[in-house]
């Protein structure tokens, strides 16, 4: 299957690295130097500068530009694509339909993990492309099909923004360790190892079971856990998801 990427920034590069061995890849961008560098690193793909008028007829397009670039880019894309895969945050399928012609549309939300082929990607859109879409985005990590754009907006506040929330937790834990006298490098190593070991735990158990498994009566975890509840960490996290969802809807309404 051939995929035509439009845009060759961070998200496109991550996807292309994941897909290059199993898909025929063409990349259209606007910066000749960065396109050449990409081609040098992956000689099996083709790259070129986007034409002033680009015919996208019968192509499988993977749109990887920033949402604000769309009004400038869309008028240059002529013809009707076969499929349009969009990674644009906050850009609805309705908005894509009004700007770019395609037989079918898919909207996705990868996350920063894509740079290590560990994205948690959510996908929605034309049901007939479900398997194909999951296949494509599984190349950069895990993907989850959702049944509506509303669900994708909720998921955006969890998996899309999630690396920032977990970074706050990681930083705070390291700061706490430093405050108690641990060296910064050791605190960082500790937290990094903790997240590494936590990934398989959360993949296999529910959070309450993990917590119950580590919290013994009157022990250290129970003391620390009570401090987190006093600090409102649970409520702050739930509010973070709620506010991110509200913002995702606002952005979608604007785009
Ligand atoms: N990064 C993430 O973690 C993440 C997560 C989820 C979703 N996304 C979505 O992924 C999309 C891309 O993000 P990114 O981080 O990859 O951005 P980026 O690194 O800035 O890449 C954007 C790419 O689009 C190209 N471009 C911009 N305007 C263009 C135009 N008019 N014609 C042709 N090419 C154009 C840029 O070219 P130049 O090199 O010349 O600037 C660049 O190659 C965004 O819509 C974002 O919402 C990103």
Summarize the topology.
Elements: E1 2-6, H1 10-19, E2 24-29, H2 32-41, E3 46-49, E4 54-55, E5 60-63, H3 70-73, E6 77-78, E7 81-86, H4 93-99, E8 102-109, E9 119-125, H5 130-138, E10 141-145, H6 149-160, H7 162-179, H8 184-204, H9 207-214, H10 220-230, H11 233-254
Parallel strand pairs: 1-2, 1-5, 2-3, 4-6, 5-7, 7-8, 9-10
Antiparallel strand pairs: 8-9
Helix pairs in contact: 6-11, 7-8
Instruction: Give the amount of beta strand, in percent.
Output: 15-25%
Instruction: Using the coordinates shown, work out and report the CATH topology of the largest domain.
Output: Rossmann fold
Following the backbone from N to C, one meets helices and strands in this order, namely EHEHEEEHEEHEEHEHHHHHH
CATH second-level architecture of the largest domain? 3-Layer(aba) Sandwich
CATH class of the largest domain: Alpha Beta
The CATH superfamily of the largest domain is known as: NAD(P)-binding Rossmann-like Domain
| Rg | 21 Å
Distinct compounds present: NADP nicotinamide-adenine-dinucleotide phosphate
Strand order of the largest sheet: 3-2-1-5-7-8-9-10
Global geometry: elongated
Number of domains: 2
Oligomer: single chain
Mean pLDDT: 96
Q: Ranges with pLDDT <50 over ≥5 residues?
A: none
Which class of secondary structure composition applies to the elements? alpha/beta
* Main sheet: strands, sense, barrel: 8 strands, mixed
Q: What is the overall number of helices?
A: 11
Pathway: Amino-acid biosynthesis; L-proline biosynthesis; L-proline from L-glutamate 5-semialdehyde: step 1/1
EC number: 1.5.1.2
Enzyme class: oxidoreductase
Function: Catalyzes the reduction of 1-pyrroline-5-carboxylate (PCA) to L-proline.
